[in-house]
Design brief:
By secondary structure, the protein is of the alpha/beta class. The protein is built from 11 helices and 13 strands. Helix 1 packs across helix 8 and helix 7 packs across helix 11. The structure holds nicotinamide-adenine-dinucleotide. The site of nicotinamide-adenine-dinucleotide has 29 residues, from helix 1, strand 2, helix 5, strand 5 and strand 7.
């Protein structure tokens, strides 16, 4: 298919682009480079040699730019990764998250409607659930996001549902990601955050490199087996595979779906640290810091709907995720070249 991928140079989008292109899809990537470097495009092309991959630098909120990207391009489906993703930033600047994540999607949906494009896979998030009423989170769990980032994801899900109610042929997949980590097994592609990482794995890899002195563990007094926070980590390559499964579902089953994409089990921070040390043969120093406001003690996905409907299951284990993340960071200590 001819697939338009927004945010395709970002962490999850780039890995998914490689898998889409290797599966024979022809790609038109749109990214504003707000959180990505242009050299990611070269790596995508390197890992999918000979594939048809075009790139347009544009913001999804720019209706005129979208119009010219869609015009005559024969787009058949959209994968919509473009968005901002920092919970703390969203608390400091909620309007930005509403504008970029919800506003950007609204403009994208208008362009799709004008060009008769009826299939979209959207990057939603487990943050749509909020404080757990029961675990694992199933898709029917109460939706009460605890921060503007999660609210923007839920608002987009609602917008997609409204669009599906309005337009008979419109189908969407809202994929509620849990905690993607890891990197392409080649070591050529991975997560490349700016500044000090907010997420555990890039923080760990930077401590292992010696760029950060010690791991900081926020909270060791949670009601979890070892007191540290528990999350459902999944390999970014598994997540990429989930997108291909969702695209096939939209086309073959001709229905919309909201599905969790997670491994279906949790690991504590100390368990991830142990797995990282085993996978890399390095010992890392760490400190215990106070809990971060708004953090949830533990959560993981019920991933059975994705297994049943999409035929998708996470395949990689935690040590694979750590080993691949480390391979990427060790081979690219400064991330992607400028
Ligand atoms: N990484 C996670 O832990 C996680 C978890 C759940 C959901 N998500 C969602 O998945 C999506 C991808 O996440 P990621 O980790 O790859 O983030 P990322 O920041 O690496 O990728 C997002 C990409 O979108 C681009 N972008 C942002 N706003 C844009 C705009 N208005 N117009 C055009 N391009 C724009 C950025 O430049 C970047 O390349 C996001 O929507 C994020 O909210 C991520």
């Amino acid at each position: 298919m001819r697939v338009l991928v927004t945010g395709g140079l970002g962490y999850i989008g780039s890995h998914t682009c490689v898998e889409l292109a290797r599966d024979g899809h022809r790609l038109l990537i749109i990214d504003n480079l707000g959180n990505a470097k242009p050299s990611v495009l070269e790596r995508i092309r390197e890992l999918a040699p000979g594939a048809a991959i075009e790139f347009v630098r544009a913001d999804v909120r720019d209706a005129a730019a979208l119009e010219s990207a869609f015009a005559g391009a024969g787009i058949e489906a959209v994968m919509h990764f473009a968005g901002l993703k920092s919970v703390s930033e969203s608390m400091a600047n909620p309007a930005l998250y509403r504008d970029n994540n919800l506003g950007g999607t609204a403009i994208l949906l208008k362009a799709m409607a004008r060009h008769g494009v009826e299939r979209i896979v959207f990057s939603s998030s487990a943050t749509v659930y909020g404080v757990p009423e029961q675990l694992p989170y199933t898709e029917s769990h109460r939706l009460q996001p605890a921060n503007p980032y999660g609210q923007s994801k839920l608002q987009v899900e609602r917008l997609l549902a409204a669009q599906a109610a309005l337009r008979a042929g419109f189908r969407y997949a809202a994929l509620r990601y849990f905690n993607p980590i890891g990197a392409h097994p080649s070591g050529r592609m991975g997560e490349d955050p700016r500044g000090v990482p907010e997420n555990l794995l890039p923080y760990l890899t930077q401590v292992a490199l010696g760029r950060l002195p010690r791991l900081r563990i926020y909270g060791a007094d949670y009601a979890t087996p070892d007191g540290t926070g528990v999350r459902d980590y999944l390999h970014v390559m598994d997540l990429a595979a989930g997108h291909l499964a969702a695209l096939a579902y939209l086309c073959d089953r001709d229905r919309s779906i909201c599905a969790n994409l997670g491994a279906g089990r949790g690991y504590s921070v100390l368990e991830v640290l142990g797995a990282f040390e085993r996978a890399t043969g390095r010992k890392l120093a760490y400190d215990i810091a106070p809990r971060r406001p708004g953090d949830i003690a533990a959560y993981h996905a019920d991933a059975s709907l994705a297994a049943r409907e999409l035929g998708w299951k996470a395949r990689y284990g935690i040590e694979d995720m750590c080993r691949d993340a480390w391979r990427w960071q060790a081979q690219n200590p400064a991330g992607y070249p400028d």
